[in-house]
Design goal:
By secondary structure, the protein is α/β, with parallel strands linked by helices. It contains ten helices and eleven strands. Helix 6 runs parallel beside helix 9.
Amino acid sequence: MNKTIIVILSLFLILFVNISPALAVNNPRNTYEIRSGDTLWKIAQTYGITINDLNSINGLQSDLLVVGQKLRVPIMYQVVAGDTLWKLAQSFNSSVPLIRTANGLTSNVIYVGQKLKIIPTKLTMDGQFVLMTRDQFRDWLFNQKFTRKITYFQEHHTWWPSYSDFNGSNHFAWMYKMKDLHVKEMGWSDISQQLTVFPDGKVVLGRPFNTPPQGSFGLLNKAVMPSIEAEALAIENVGNFDEGHDQMTPEQRETIITVAALLSIKFGLTPSVDTIQYHHWWDMNTGERVLDKSEGHAVKTCPGTGFFGGNSTTDAKNDFYPLVRNKMQEILSTM
């Protein structure tokens, strides 16, 4: 084979790969990495889905795309020996019913050499709010690229709503109520927190990660509030975790630890009083960080006097940070 033929064949293969990524068989990861010039419309056209489906699959809160961000997309997969629909669903963030529907299958039987279209599972969304399991949040977080620096995150409890207000399915209803409180009564631009952890262990995205939280610290000192929260994320844990009130469920406890570990890994943080901060350690009016020297200051008990042993820095160091560090090691061992 002469050099001219080799060059022609090489150009043909490059062209085929560039225009037909959706047909790449046995792509080990059904992800597409955003490049300069990409739009949701362009990506949706390439992979044969709608923009709405692309949004739902990836929990996108806006049309903003960041170079290096990764999106879950449909792929074509050629069945090999040992494959089952369940294994494929687990490998490619899909489900058995979804694969069957996409391919017109009437049973779970598949055969070697068969080509299947595998579509990732859609996340549950209502407007800007995205409801996720712990595993879905992990996948979402590690596929994101953020446009601002994150150096710490805040732990809060809602106090209201508390456990008695949650019925197991009203996640979005309470997100809208909290947003109304923050926007209409507090005068903020959006719901304050980026993440809300519910008693069933589910997580809801709220304020976009690329927008700093608002109003958590320094309510009466508008001059310092933006600088305090410029590099922060806010987490609201639904419940009243002051002693004698709500008893945290095992599901919520596990999610609070896991979310803290995932954020620490994502942003390169080591759990400490500087990187995982309790609302109780700040004067809510002046924005001064007082830590355990709260006498004479306007402080809340948030995230609760019963939050993982208490709300002091000693409680955090002895009872919360070790759990987060252990979870980080557990997660990293699987990556």
